[in-house]
Design a protein that fits this description.
219 residues, mainly alpha, 10 helices, 82% helix
Length: 219
């Protein structure tokens, strides 16, 4: 469980810091009171973490199902462990991130921030009522949840939960998201211009490759 917690904390923090949802939290915190923004953002990311872990845990049960239902001539597929599949996904995703980092230009950080601001503005047009506490919470929740769906952190969480203790991944993932959200909401405006999306992507890619090796080694 400790290994799963550590993996979830490190991988989610490295993947989320400087991501689109991170900058969305920064933008929201500059327009609204910080407390409801933080509640909405953290609630959305925690919900997404629980859903992703659930999906990953379901995938972990597939080998047992295959053993019972596959024809005998295909039963060898069930012998491929979920750890091996997870390690392959970690490795491929790490390579993908490293490749993406090579394609990033000096304008990439500005583009990510602009995308986040546009997403918030689009959301504001859908929430025309007064800026009450719960309206801000709901808007922050919805915008963050939608932006996070299919993001690299969700894929990382699903893969981790399929290979490691789901409770540890859940706690580590939620803590990692909370740390990044706190940084974004309370200090994001000050440090947003100093975060390099390229460096964060490289670090994330290297971490994925490291976890691929550790998954095979410790699996």
């Amino acid at each position: 469980m400790l290994e799963a917690f550590t993996a979830g904390l490190l991988l989610i923090t490295a993947s989320e810091l400087g991501d689109k949802t991170f900058f969305m939290a920064v933008v929201l915190a500059t327009r609204y009171p910080r407390k409801p923004v933080l509640i909405g953002v953290v609630s959305a990311l925690a919900t997404m973490t629980v859903l992703s872990v659930g999906i990953g845990h379901f995938l972990m049960l597939l080998p047992q199902f295959l053993l019972q239902h596959l024809p005998s001539n295909l039963a060898f597929l069930a012998k491929i462990t979920i750890q091996q599949v997870a390690a392959l996904l970690f490795f491929l995703f790490g390579l993908k991130l490293l490749y993406e980092s090579r394609q990033m230009s000096a304008q990439t950080d500005e583009e990510v921030r602009n995308e986040a601001a546009e997403a918030v503005e689009a959301g504001e047009r859908k929430f025309q009522q007064r800026n009450t506490f719960w309206k801000i919470v709901i808007e922050s929740f919805v915008l963050t949840f939608v932006a996070e769906w299919g993001d690299r952190t969700q894929i990382a969480t699903i893969t981790l939960a399929a290979a490691k203790n789901p409770i540890g991944v859940t706690i580590g993932g939620i803590l990692g998201h909370t740390i990044c959200s706190l940084i974004a909401v309370w200090g994001g405006k000050m440090i947003a211009g100093r975060i390099s999306e390229k460096i964060i992507t490289i670090v994330g890619g290297l971490l994925f490759i490291l976890f691929a090796v550790l998954t095979i080694w410790l699996g």
